[in-house]
Amino acid sequence: MASAAFVALAGIEAAAQTALPEISVTDTRLSGIRESGPQPDVIGGIVGRGGGITGASTTIISRQDIERSPQVTIADILTREAGIQTSSLYGGVNGAGTTVDLRGFGITGPSNTLILVDGRRLNDWDLPGFDLSTIARESIERIEITRGNSAGVLYGDGAVGGVINIVTRKGVDRPSSFRADAAVGSFNYNEGNVYGSTSSGPFSAFAGGTAIRSDGYRDNNALHQKTAVGNFRYNVDQGSVFFDIGADDQNLRLPGPRNYDGITNQLLTDRRGTNTPFDYADKQGIRLTGGFTRLLSPGLELIVDGGLRKKDQQAAFFSPFSESYVDTTLSTYSVTPRLNLDQVWWGIPVRALGGIDFYRTDYESDRSFFKGLAPIHRYNGNLDTLAAYWQQTFTVWPSTDLSFGGRIQRNDLSARDRYDPTAPQPFFVNPQGLPLDNSETNRAYHLGLEHRLTENVTLFGRMAQSFRVPNIDERIGAVPVMTVTDFDLKTQQSHDFEGGVRVRLGALEIQSSVYEMQLTNELHFNPITFKNENLDPTRRRGWETIASWRVSDDLRFRGSLTWIDARFREGPLAGNVVPVVSKWSGSAGMSWNIIDKRLVFDADVRHFTNRFLDGNEINSTALFMIPSRTLVDLRLGGELDQFFWSVSVQNLLNELTYDYALDTSSPGFPFVSFYPQPGRTFLVRAGMKW
């Protein structure tokens, strides 16, 4: 598991107000494995029959939940959900660079949690991956969370811990509307949003943009970011044509760590300071998706779409000992036709989704001594992925659903390192890396079952196999000087088992499940050799419980509790805990309409127990642990005619802590890098909508 901190910084870089919302299943392969048809059954955010992957633990964060959340960022909103933890390296400014970990993978959480937007995979073929902060809150309709690796059948590699699908807002079947708002907050935070939607006959559109500026909590921590999104639809009786666009531009200053060397502890003496006053990371991204749907016959729909994503990144790390400027371009092209089936065969309801996925990813990264100089190393990589999949659900009895599916995926990889000995460079430089051409075929499967014991009690279970292909940054690594880069790594494999129960007792909704995940060839970053490697076998075991109690239309309580046991199960580290994973975490919240929608109050408490530092695979407690933390977040807001407002405070108790640290100590030479997070912060928002 490559440490994102080390690699990047080393230069390798619902609560509804009065009613729950209706849920549309357009633009996702997850909801009942169909993209049109009846609404899934959703109460209190927990997905029941007709929603999610049969046998899997699935929840939905609604639009109302997002609007009323006391948390500012999408990453923080996600941490209220069972099984999700986050790590931030950059002071938490708007969640920029914050990584999401689903089901206990620690620092490689983002590589094992698949992020989708409107059902299309967005995990990039590099370590930074997809930055959730580039999706504006105002553009999101809902967030679907499917835990475990069963979604690997529908979406391919990377869905080991689970899938987070962000469904964006559309203008379909809605009256024309317009919304504008602004927010100001701590550390000179300023935000502006403008969004609108319209529909006329068969045509509909939704578009808007967000701009954010902040000085950040730390020195050299400023953020300037702009995002824009547009969704356009033309619907006819037997189908539709659609086109989506998203773009982002981010300028982020990198404050680096606060260090402890056995004598000085910068976390105590100057937690907001920086040792990297000139480091920065810029990023420009664009994503385009277009396609059409066509009803071939009753209950049989063809969906054909394709996409282009491009991400340009420039980063400077002022180090005299290595390439200090990185200029990277990552482009992904995709074509993903599929068939959606929802019919009755011989009296048995059948739902199925199958198709072909083709992805082409091109990577080019220049590593120079300083900006403007010729590259010392130029890394090139190409990855072609071709997959076929089919997943089907039968209602075998009126009370029982059975789902099964499989995926076969071929990956063709080519990676090269071109070294220029004439380029300006430091005294010690790595030689040219070894070339790699590799082809392999991987398989995934899912078998799920749901049985309704009574009208109020449902049992569910599943077993599944999935995989994760090493990304290009893991193949390049962060090897020390005078070391040859070797691109070759094995593919990670995962086998899951899960069982649970859903209970509905009037206004009370509970979902609880236990799972075990067996992994082989798990990808891991070794802080001693500075290389990525495949681990001896590991495992994850866990218990997750989600609850929602709707006392009345004006008052709702929600909560979650998670236990994760992530360990090495063989080899010299057998029995040791995987670092950067809290064993216990939980949340409790309430939403209260004090005076209908004119005055509303929301509160959340989130708790995480302590964690071992990244790099501390031997589980030594001689130095530091990432401490336990309890975060209390509050929001008071309201609407009056067209005007709306809110005042929120995060980390009310002003806990001064960190959720990520890296231990690179050696015997007799302690050295720990901390990435501190802000204490109490405030945000005031006001706007109008028409």
Structure description:
- 5% of the residues lie in helices and 54% in strands.
- The protein has 690 residues and is mainly beta.
- The chain has a single domain (4-603), classed as Maltoporin, Chain A (Beta Barrel).
- The chain has a 23-stranded antiparallel β-sheet that branches.
Quickly name the level 1 CATH class: Mainly Beta
What distance separates the N and C termini?
48 Å
- Rg calculated over all Cα atoms: 24 Å
Computed structural class:
mainly beta
* Annotated CATH topology: Maltoporin, Chain A
CATH superfamily: TonB-dependent receptor, beta-barrel domain
Largest sheet: 23 strands, antiparallel
Q: What's the number of domains?
A: 1
Strand content: over 45%
Number of strands: 37
Mean pLDDT: 88
Unreliable runs, pLDDT <50, ≥5 residues?
1-27, 30-43
**What is the CATH architecture annotation?**
Beta Barrel
Helix content: under 10%
Number of helices: 7
Shape verdict? globular
For the structure shown, list the relevant keywords:
Maltoporin, Chain A, 54% strand, 23-stranded antiparallel β-sheet, 690 residues, disordered N terminus, single chain, mainly beta
Topology overview:
Layout: H1 4-10, E1 42-43, E2 46-47, E3 58-61, H2 63-68, H3 74-78, E4 84-87, E5 99-102, H4 109-112, E6 113-117, E7 120-121, E8 140-147, H5 152-155, E9 162-168, E10 177-185, E11 189-200, E12 203-214, E13 223-236, E14 239-253, E15 258-260, H6 266-269, E16 280-297, E17 300-316, E18 325-335, E19 338-345, E20 348-368, E21 377-397, E22 400-419, E23 436-452, E24 457-468, H7 472-476, E25 492-505, E26 508-520, E27 523-526, E28 531-534, E29 538-552, E30 555-568, E31 584-597, E32 599-608, E33 629-640, E34 643-650, E35 658-663, E36 672-676, E37 681-689
Parallel strand pairs: 6-9
Antiparallel strand pairs: 1-2, 3-8, 4-5, 6-7, 8-9, 10-11, 10-37, 11-12, 12-13, 13-14, 14-16, 15-36, 16-17, 17-18, 17-19, 18-20, 19-20, 20-21, 21-22, 22-23, 23-24, 24-25, 25-26, 26-29, 27-28, 29-30, 30-31, 31-32, 32-33, 33-34, 34-37, 35-36
